[in-house]
């Protein structure tokens, strides 16, 4: 049974696709905050994948990231998600992202587990 304090780990290798880029081009040839945030959300989702039923799906509700140091192309980033709370349908995790012994980022993620049909209604475009 999953309980607060449990951890899940996701690792990813930094590639050029993770670099900080905007419409005006390359900003830095290091892992972007956006790419770190996506990896952090996935690490928390690993809990959701184990908790949800076949007729349920997770949806992100909160993401906080403190980007502390660069991660370079070829670095392996290890994101460790720690389950803080699982109440009702809410899943809250804290996480750390490291590359070797360097702390790259930390923060929190939140997700809710909803019935797929309810989620489809929430995400459907409003028609006038």
Automatic annotation (TrEMBL):
Entry superkingdom: Bacteria
Domain Fluoroacetyl-CoA-specific thioesterase-like: 14-116
Entries under InterPro entries matching the protein: FlK, FlK-like_dom, HotDog_dom_sf
SUPFAM superfamilies (alphabetical): Thioesterase/thiol ester dehydrase-isomerase
Name under which the protein is recorded: Fluoroacetyl-CoA-specific thioesterase-like domain-containing protein
């Amino acid at each position: 049974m999953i309980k607060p304090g449990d951890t899940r780990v996701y690792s990813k290798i930094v590639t050029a696709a993770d670099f900080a880029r905007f419409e005006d081009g390359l900003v830095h040839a290091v892992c972007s905050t956006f790419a770190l945030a996506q990896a952090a959300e996935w690490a928390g989702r690993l809990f959701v994948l184990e908790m949800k039923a076949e007729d349920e799906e997770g949806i992100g509700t909160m993401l906080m990231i403190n980007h502390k140091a660069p991660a370079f192309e070829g670095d392996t980033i290890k994101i460790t998600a720690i389950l803080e709370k699982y109440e009702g349908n809410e899943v809250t995790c804290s996480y750390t992202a490291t590359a070797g012994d360097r702390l790259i980022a930390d923060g929190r993620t939140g997700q809710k587990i909803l019935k797929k049909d309810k989620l489809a209604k929430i995400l459907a475009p409003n028609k006038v």
